[in-house]
Amino acid sequence: MTDLTDKVAIVTGGTRGIGLATVTALAEAGATVVLTGRDEAVAKEAAAGVPGGRVTGVALDVTDSAAVSSTIRAVAKEHGRLDVVVANAGVLEGALVGMMKDDLVERMLSTNVAGTLYTVQAAARAMMRKKTGSIVLLASIAGEQGSAGQSAYAASKAGVTAIAKSTAKELGRYGIRVNAVAPGVIDTAMTAAMGEEAIAANVEQTPLGRLGSPEDVAKAIRFLAGDEAAFVTGQVLGVDGGLVL
Question: Which keywords does this chain's UniProt record carry (predicted)?
Answer without folding.
Answer: Oxidoreductase
